[in-house]
Amino acid sequence: MNWTALVVFMIFFLFVTVLGFVSAKWRRGDLDRLDEWGLAGRRFGTIVTWFLLGGDLYTAYTFIAVPALMYAKGGIGFFAVPYTIIIYPFVFMVMPRLWSVAKKHNYITASDFVKGRYGSSTLALLVAITGILATMPYIALQLVGMQAVFDGMGLSGDWPLIIAFLILAVYTYNSGLRAPASIAIVKDLMIYVTIIVAVIYIPYKLGGFGPIFDAATAKHHAAALLPSNNFAVYSTLSLGSALALFLYPHSLTGIFSSSSREVIKRNTALLPAYSFVLGLLALLGYMAIAAGIDTKDGNAAIPQLILKMFPDWFTGFAFAAIAIGALVPAAIMSIAAANLFTRNIYKEYINKNCTEKQEARMAKMVSLVVKVGALAFIFLFARQDAINLQLLGGVWILQTLPAVIVGLYTNWFNKWALILGWVASMVTGTWMAAYMHFGNSFKLPFGIGGGTMIYIGLYALVINFVVSIVLTWLFNAINLKNGKDETVAADYQ
Amino acid sequence: MPNEQKDKKASWLWYLLLLIPFIATLWPPFYAGAEPTLAGMPYFYWYQFLWVIISAVLTAVVYFATKQK
């Protein structure tokens, strides 16, 4: 047991716990309303949104898994960087439109928008279910990230994880989105300090970047860079992941809670600061190789590197940064899933005439259930199951792109065509992933490119588009009625 | 009216700048090599770090250029 590290860790953990409860009073609003509890009243300005989205998108699991991939597989793990480069130009172009239409019609979820745009509660239900399914394993993975630092401190057993998650569940219930937003500020600052110290101090101890890359080359050989047979996987993974990221409910919560479309646009120029840090963080995987860390469990590589290189008090600080890095996204994800369930399943199918207060109460309860579910999942199933499901979740959430993103520009698609396109791509995408034993890529058909592999999510998306387009033509030809669009062009400006 | 339309067209051209990062980062043959290294870091890595910065700057340029007055 590393006592110094543990004490420092506990101090920071207690601090954010108090902060989580107190933040209910921050920019006070009526927490019995869903847009106050779940979106903090859409009042977050540029700076809070920057911290919130940074805390939301760059999760504890990212901090553990990205360097772990570099440590275990080499340069392919760096795809996280082009992925996070191209997200922001994409968000700049697309998301202000979603913000505007959501503000105009009081949409709280992507599914609300889909229902309004296509007049189809079936399509909206599918989008909601996809969002919830994709989010659950993501929350479970935050627990995996947290477990990695608990293991590093020598805290064994399940109870630290259970306690941490119960505390999180209670203050999220109490304070809604305000809790992760205020904690995100602490978390992001701690992460910046940790990474900046790490990428200056560790290379200094190891003799600069030259020896670090030499050690990586000695281990990975050609894979320390990007061999040409990995080009297609690398770029399709980057593109597919980038297109998927802002379809996840927790990312959209960050968009909806912004106070204006200008806030979103400004953030796309400011959020790349996190991408830069993510690149540095990825290199910690190579630093672990150079520092002689030898482990079969890639997730242990970074905690072990931190333990080996830093004095105990800084280890405690760095571990706290990672653990708090799990709390923020886990809270936002559970809120987002709760919003989806409440708006698009409970209110739509179970209690049509529910009051605002009942709606908010249901969301709070669901946020608890979601977290307990994630906790149960980690204990009942293998860690690898959560990782596999998270990979599938990425493939799945991408299949809502035609309805949500294309829907921001046109209502040309027939709602039934979109539904069938979704079904076709979900089935084929899931099949491909399972067939590859939960690998992330699949061969192109008919021997194109001599067996070039591309990212499964993107593959399924192409199938989705083909089915949706062909069937829309067909349905238009037989004059099948489309749903009623409650939005007009001006709503998107 | 014609003036407004002209403005709109001009702002669309600015948006084209946002396509540049996609081309620069989604085509690995541009950067998959080791040379030249920068402070011990292979080209593959520092090229992508550089594009984090360039694309942020491009986004900022488009933001200011298309900002509604």
Can you offer a commentary on this structure?
The complex is a heterodimer of chains A (493) and B (69). Chain A has 21 helices and two strands. With 493 residues, chain A is mainly alpha-helical. Chain A has a two-stranded antiparallel sheet with strand order 1-2. The longest helix of chain A has 39 residues, at 312-350. The model of chain A has no long low-confidence stretch (mean pLDDT 91). By secondary structure, chain B is mainly alpha-helical. Chain B is elongated and about 45 Å long. Chain B starts with a helix and ends with a helix. The relative contact order of chain B is 0.16. The chains are: A mainly alpha (493), B mainly alpha (69). Chains A and B meet through helix 5, helix 10, helix 11, helix 13 and helix 14 of A and helix 2 and helix 3 of B.
Q: What descriptors fit this protein?
A:
heterodimer, A: 493 residues, mainly alpha, B: 69 residues, 3 helices
Concise account of the structure shown:
Chain A has 493 residues and is mainly alpha-helical. In chain A, 74% of the residues lie in helices and 1% in strands. The longest helix of chain B has 24 residues, at 43-66.
Uncertain ranges of chain A: none
The global form of chain B is elongated
Number of beta-strand segments of chain A: 2
* Proportion in β-strands of chain A: under 5%
User: In sequence order, what are the helices and strands of chain B, one letter per element?
Assistant: HHH
- Distance between the first and last residues' Cα of chain A: 57 Å
Low-pLDDT windows of residues of chain B: none
| Head-to-tail CA distance between termini of chain B | 17 Å
Question: Please, what is the average pLDDT of chain A?
Answer: 91
Residues in β-strands, percent of chain B: under 5%
Tell me about the biggest sheet of chain A? 2 strands, antiparallel
- Decide which structural class fits the backbone of chain A: mainly alpha
